[in-house]
């Protein structure tokens, strides 16, 4: 089967073939002022939960309607780039990751959310400040946060028991982490204490440990890929493979995840979006905020899904958008049930939320969230670092040389 091109997706949107699309045209500008076209990339297990929120909102009142359009996550930002650049077939509202907002805000393609928070229905104080801060560009806020999704720590409780470890007490620091990993490693059974990811979640883990050591990837207009904190972080991960031998070498993408699901990897870092898969696996697992492996402070990589409003020539449907966002802020438990932790205080402080298993532990990490640097095209810039880290963890390159090459490539890219 051929892959659908971006142009093909655009045609599907124009023709109204995507699920939930009605494209009503009743005003002079060709837009129904009470109909909000919403784009989201939730094409995985979390999609049905978000659909549940939209259906519930549409049934809750008769004035407004939200047309939800789920675009495959692999194609999502291609669509966003195309439509924001051409200003054709723009949605009224869309989901955007916090670390992508800077790419569009600096091009004046998004509305500042101050136009929404002037309303009594939406207030900045109703959301966790870390999430709001992450959507700020040059002092202005461009996103209303749906959630905060930090890296989380998972462990196999059955393997902990067999190793003589308390299955309800995960490691709290680097020393315990290493000790546990060694006890949990059984070479003759091809069982490992901690399978170090070489790609996939590796950037999240690297940024987490780096921040815990007091380091930053980018600050004051400069890359810090060659800092002592970055070198120490990379060497810590490398040594788990080649010195401590608590991890297999040469893992491919998601190799650490596959081993965890097979009961061959005792400790694992991943995001809260994995809840459904872990639950379906039937594994006896624990979940907690990441341990403080770095010696300086508790920090954890995080990102957020945000609602953003594209600038449109025909004017924004602020009344309908404000009403919907207010509803989501107060009725986000369905999103929490997907494994995520909504950034709305009305949800994450509620009794219903606190009764969930994983999600309250996700919210415990909110105060320690460390977002990616606000650098345009950060995805591409950081990829130079990710590629070099991969080579080190595969045993193909020296740590210092790799970090030096990553910094050189990043600096050249932004020249």
UniProtKB/TrEMBL annotation:
<dbReference type="Pfam" id="PF01547">
    <property type="entry name" value="SBP_bac_1"/>
</dbReference>
<dbReference type="InterPro" id="IPR006059">
    <property type="entry name" value="SBP"/>
</dbReference>
<keyword id="KW-0732">Signal</keyword>
<feature type="signal peptide">
    <location>
        <begin position="1"/>
        <end position="19"/>
    </location>
</feature>
<protein>
    <submittedName>
        <fullName>ABC transporter substrate-binding protein</fullName>
    </submittedName>
</protein>
<dbReference type="InterPro" id="IPR050490">
    <property type="entry name" value="Bact_solute-bd_prot1"/>
</dbReference>
């Amino acid at each position: 089967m051929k892959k659908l091109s971006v142009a093909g997706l655009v045609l599907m949107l124009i023709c109204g073939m995507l699920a939930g699309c009605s494209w009503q045209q009743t005003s002079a500008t060709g837009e129904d002022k009470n109909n909000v076209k919403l784009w989201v990339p939730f094409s995985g297990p979390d999609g049905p939960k978000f659909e549940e929120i939209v259906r519930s909102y549409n049934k809750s009142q008769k004035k407004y309607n939200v047309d939800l359009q789920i675009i495959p996550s692999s194609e999502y930002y291609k669509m966003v780039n195309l439509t924001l650049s051409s200003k054709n077939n723009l949605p009224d509202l869309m989901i955007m990751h916090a670390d992508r907002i800077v790419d569009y805000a600096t091009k004046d393609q998004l509305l500042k959310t101050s136009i929404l928070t002037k309303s009594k229905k939406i207030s900045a104080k109703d959301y966790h400040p870390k999430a709001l801060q992450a959507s700020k560009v040059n002092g202005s806020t461009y996103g209303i946060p749906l959630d905060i999704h930090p890296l989380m720590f998972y462990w196999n409780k059955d393997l902990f028991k067999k190793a003589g470890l308390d299955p309800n007490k995960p490691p709290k620091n680097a020393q315990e982490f290493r000790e546990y990993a060694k006890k949990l490693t059984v070479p003759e059974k091809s069982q490992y204490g901690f399978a170090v990811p070489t790609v996939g979640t590796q950037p999240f883990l690297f940024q987490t440990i780096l921040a815990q050591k007091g380091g930053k990837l980018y600050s004051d207009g400069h890359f810090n890929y060659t800092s002592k904190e970055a070198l120490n972080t990379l060497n810590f991960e490398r040594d788990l493979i080649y010195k401590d031998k608590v991890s297999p070498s040469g893992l491919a993408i998601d190799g650490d995840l596959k081993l965890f699901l097979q009961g061959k990897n005792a400790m694992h870092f991943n995001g809260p979006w994995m809840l459904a898969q872990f639950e379906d696996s039937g594994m006896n697992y624990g979940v907690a905020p990441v341990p403080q492996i770095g010696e300086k402070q508790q920090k954890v990589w995080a990102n957020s899904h945000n609602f953003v409003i594209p600038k449109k020539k025909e004017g924004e449907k602020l009344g309908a958008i404000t009403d919907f966002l207010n509803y989501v802020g107060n009725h986000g438990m369905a999103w929490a049930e997907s494994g995520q932790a909504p950034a709305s205080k009305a949800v994450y402080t509620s009794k219903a939320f606190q009764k969930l298993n994983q999600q309250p532990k996700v919210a415990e990490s909110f105060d320690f969230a460390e977002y990616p640097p606000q650098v345009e095209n950060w995805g591409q810039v950081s990829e130079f670092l990710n590629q070099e880290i991969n080579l080190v963890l595969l045993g193909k390159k020296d740590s210092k040389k790799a970090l030096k090459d990553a910094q050189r490539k990043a600096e050249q890219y932004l020249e």
